[in-house]
Amino acid sequence: MRTEQPKMIYLKDYQVPDYLIDETHLTFELFEDHTLVHAQLVMRRNPAAGAGLPPLVLDGQLLELLSVQLDDRVLSGNDYQIDASHLTLHPASERFSVDTSVKIHPETNTALEGLYKSGTMFCTQCEAEGFRKITYYLDRPDVMSKFTTTVIAEQHRYPVLLSNGNPVGNGPQDDGRHWATWEDPFMKPAYLFALVAGDLWCVEDSFATMSGRNVALRIYVEPENIDKCQHAMNSLKKSMRWDEEVYGREYDLDIFMIVAVNDFNMGAMENKGLNIFNSSAVLARAETATDAAHQRVEAIVAHEYFHNWSGNRVTCRDWFQLSLKEGFTVFRDAGFSADMNSRTVKRIQDVAYLRTHQFAEDAGPMAHAVRPDSFIEISNFYTLTVYEKGSEVVGMIHTLLGAEGFRKGSDLYFQRHDGQAVTCDDFVKAMEDANGVDFTQFKRWYSQAGTPRLAVSESYDASAKTYSLTFRQSCPQTPDKQEKLPFVIPVEIGLLDARGAEIALQLAGEAAAGATSRVLSVTEAEQTFIFVGIAAKPLPSLLRGFSAPVKLGFPYDRDQLMFLMQHDSDGFNRWDAGQQLSVQVLQELIGQHQQGQALVLDPRLVTALRSVLGNEQLDQAMVAEMLSLPGEAYLTEISEVADVEAIHTAREFVRRQLAEQLFDGLWQRYQANRAVSKTTAYVAENEHFARRALQNIALSYLMLSGRPEVLAATLEQFETADNMTERLTALAVLVNSPFEAEKALALASFAEHFKDNPLVMDQWFSVQAGSPLPGGLQRVKALMEHPAFTIRNPNKVRALIGAFAGQNLINFHAADGSGYRFLADLVIQLNALNPQIASRQLAPLTRWRKYDGARQALMKAELERIRGSGELSADVYEVVSKSLA
Ligand code: B3K
Ligand code: ZN
Fold it and tell me: Which of 271, 448, 694, 698 would staple 620 via disulfide (CB 3.0–4.6 Å)?
């Protein structure tokens, strides 16, 4: 909770630390009603900080100081100053050591930051500033230290005692307690510290690194989950091999551990040698986890593992540089997932997500640059902008340099900065130096917030046989009010002739025609590229692979989009042409609805999707993606003023029309794929994901027809599927159907069968919370009373409240404001328990400017009610006050 008025912190105020901590020796004595932490810090004056001996200001929160010693001297009350977040000492020499003992209360820590209990186990989460809730320290990432940690706890309750690095000793004590000591040979900032104590089982394996070292791999879980670790272990080994092959990065300790915990604020944490994971990001097996969950586990295991180099060996100088490790690591995990599965499908999913959610963030009150200039609470900046847009920025560097040039740059970066805490500028500098290029202008992507617009126009000169593309870039105003300068926008393009063949591209001034796809670098506010030797007016394929995170506008008509859907050699752009066609059709229908006209579907959309559905050559996952209409959240994002009812009505209308008109094709593909699923054991691999993806989207359309044969097929799939992907889809399809009796039976039997598996129950909550049928809020309120729900578990909050407010737009935005009131009540309650989760759940209310006047007023009133509700955490205070500014 807030103890003083939250303050804004600025990047421009960064100063090197006054003191350094060479060694950190920690001893934890864990008890049921408190924990004692003894710290010995071997410190010295930082030579880079200037002369003299300024006061030493250690960070510390919610700590009860029991004793403090400077070298051999026990300090008394006059020798130090203490306030709610600092302990100030007065060193008398350049080198000294500080010893403290503090008492803390992990057993009542509901914020899940610092040391806390998840179920019966102790665990930690220190990033970004949680270590200060464990002991007094210089809790900032540019203070790196060598850690030794001893954990002492009751042997019977906590047989497993873990920390970072290598185990160096352990043994019993004569009071029923035991101890273990861990030593991490690598210097690290405190945010990478971890401790775990519990009754855990582990799955063990090993990995031979590229230089022939043997690394022990262990995944620790609570005993009932021991059968759900194999997929994560396989993913870990694949990640380790991939990082060697693609980035030349080898693992550096003798042991790598993952621990799964049920109560965790985010996906996972890359603590050195001891990753701590949300159990939802580790546990996966066919019967209990969907294909999407399997792919998420693979991606998060990889992401955290890759941090060992991009984050741990080379870390951030300060938290404004967060994207240095996060943007780069997301880029790395996306490359890994693309290699393990389908590159095009991975790109489609990432872009759809970015455009829907990051673009909305960029257009809202919390908009910030990839490297923010200021913040109140750093926890609020683990955002889509820092992560996903940050990854796009690294991806553009990759596009501009090519794979080889990029690898030269990353090699130089790791070699130059190993063991250091550095900045985004250092990263870009390594890329520049390794390739002899100048990225001065490119770096505006790090400092300017907002999603750039890129308006493209064409002209064809038949007599000169030239074709010109003119690009005009602009960037909307964001709350920081800075004036936007032109970005460097890499635009990958191709030109298609009338038969759909690709034209070899030659720009005016070039000697000869070259490749059929190339990257144009748009660097000015307005810029024209002239292609020569163009025999007839071509059709451009623009921003292939989504080569830059911009909103591109080109006046395609619907026939042209259908043509691109069929002929574009770029798979991503084939999909995107389909999305643009759908958007045009949906926007027309939204207009018809608003004017009270009868809805009339443009038959071209049906024709286009019929041809996709009938294309047996196409990757089935691509077919599934192409059949997915743009979501309501995306349609909201691209609206000036989002009309919730019109968007929902128009989209449901199209879905029903498609279900009717494409029934035979959908039914045929559903049955063919279901037949294979029935005779094939579950395999968590790409081709099988693809088959089930098409099967399941087909089923969700088919059920809209309400035909009895579809109901029978759904019930058959629900009852007999051997995997959660098919079973959960069947359940969701029933939940969204009018078949009340079947729905109730299915929900009850599912809950009965899986009541002891919290992750499966999360799915059960989500499916219901996301259902757009009337009465959504009442259903959610009733589900909050279900014994499997608890507001203290972040996964439960996300599954029920997050799914309702984030995905069930028609119910959440009910015109009477009941959804808003419900969310605000929850945020107020969560603010006191878990500020990070409270602040995340607030996101939908921050988007109030998107809606009509009546909804704006209702949403703002709820934000104001939260603001006035009492003592706000810095997390909630920042989001609420910026939203109302
Ligand atoms: N680095 C962590 C995120 C920590 C969030 C702290 N509020 C997970 C990740 O990005 O890998
Ligand atoms: Zn990360």
Answer: 694
